[in-house]
């Protein structure tokens, strides 16, 4: 079974440009999460999709960030225009289900997309 | 507010010695606690979790973690470290959000360096 895949693995852009990151979750996983880690800091939650719906986008930094998950399969995270502070590693994770109850909330992570804004 | 603290940026240990990576948490309700590991150029991998039951939980690669409710801690341990254990370790706690859904809140990570 294929794991969570992310593309690109590394992107270097200049301030003001646009970048789109893509995540393909494990097939059948309804829950998809985006996280970001800035160098040396904690892995911060950005948002959570349940199928195609945004369940929680409380971690999105500002309106320069736009996440979509059309059809409830893969997701994209677009940063437009990129700023220097957007540099970091963007992780995508998925899980089959995560509601209150006995599901333990283990997430399956991709390898991350490293974004460098110059 | 729900949070996780990993007080050590880096832990150095000699191969064969026991290791401990510290984690404390703050969460409302019963905690669901996790450890993840990130090897170089890889994604985060699940190591182990505490949901309920025994305070000592065992996970992958010989790691274990001890849940201590009174100290709100969930330290990661291994009796005998290997050089291949060198990686970045993240502690996480489940945070409940509206609608019955959940998300993980992570600490800043601790780099474990095991020397031959």
Considering the chains and any ligands shown, give keywords for the structure:
heterodimer, A: 118 residues, mainly beta, Immunoglobulin-like, 7-stranded mixed beta sheet, 4-stranded antiparallel beta sheet, B: 116 residues, 6-stranded mixed beta sheet, 53% strand, globular
Description:
The complex is a heterodimer of chains A (118) and B (116). Chain A is an all-beta fold and 118 residues long. Chain A has a single domain (5-98), classed as Immunoglobulin-like (Sandwich), CATH 2.60.40. Chain A has strands at 5-7, 10-13, 19-24, 31-37, 43-50, 53-56, 65-68, 75-79, 88-95, 108-109, 113-117. In chain A, the strands form two sheets. In chain A, strands 2, 4, 5, 6, 9, 10 and 11 form a seven-stranded mixed beta sheet that branches. In chain A, strands 1-3-8-7 form a four-stranded antiparallel beta sheet, with no helix packed on it. The radius of gyration of chain A is 14 Å and the shape is globular. The mean pLDDT of chain A is 90. Chain B has 116 residues and is an all-beta fold. Chain B has one domain: Immunoglobulin-like, CATH 2.60.40. In chain B, 0% of the residues lie in helices and 53% in strands. In chain B, strands 2, 5, 6, 10, 11 and 12 form a six-stranded mixed beta sheet that branches. Chain B has a four-stranded antiparallel beta sheet with strand order 3-9-8-7, with no helix packed on it. In chain B, strand 10 (87-96) and strand 11 form a beta hairpin. Chain B is globular. The model of chain B has no long low-confidence stretch (mean pLDDT 92). The chains are: A mainly beta (118), B mainly beta (116). The A-B interface holds A 3-4, 31, 33, 35, 37, 40-45, 48, 50, 55-56, 58, 91, 93, 98-101, 104-112 and B 4, 9, 32, 34, 36, 41-46, 49, 51, 90, 94, 96-109.
Task: Give the gist of this structure.
The complex is a heterodimer of chains A (118) and B (116). Chain A has 118 residues and is an all-beta fold.
């Amino acid at each position: 079974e294929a794991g969570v895949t992310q593309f690109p693995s590394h992107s270097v852009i200049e301030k003001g440009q646009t970048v789109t990151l893509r995540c393909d979750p494990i097939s059948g996983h309804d829950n998809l999460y985006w996280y970001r880690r800035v160098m040396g800091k904690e892995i911060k939650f950005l948002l959570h999709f349940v199928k195609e719906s945004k369940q929680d986008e409380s971690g999105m930094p500002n309106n320069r960030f736009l996440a979509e998950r059309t059809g409830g399969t893969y997701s994209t995270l677009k940063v437009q225009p990129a700023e220097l502070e957007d540099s970091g590693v963007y992780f995508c994770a998925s899980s089959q289900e995560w509601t209150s109850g006995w599901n333990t909330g283990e997430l399956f992570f991709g390898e991350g997309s490293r974004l460098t804004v110059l | 507010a729900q949070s996780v603290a990993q007080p050590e940026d880096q832990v150095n240990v000699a191969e064969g010695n026991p290791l401990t990576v510290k984690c404390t948490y703050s969460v409302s309700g019963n905690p669901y606690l996790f450890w993840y590991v990130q090897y170089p150029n890889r994604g985060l991998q699940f190591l182990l979790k505490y949901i309920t039951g025994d305070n000592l939980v065992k996970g992958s690669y010989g790691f274990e973690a001890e849940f201590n409710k009174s100290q709100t801690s969930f330290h990661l341990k291994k009796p005998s470290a290997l050089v291949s254990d060198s990686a970045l370790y993240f502690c996480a706690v489940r945070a409940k959000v509206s609608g019955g859904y959940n998300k993980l809140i992570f600490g800043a990570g601790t780099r474990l360096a095991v020397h031959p």
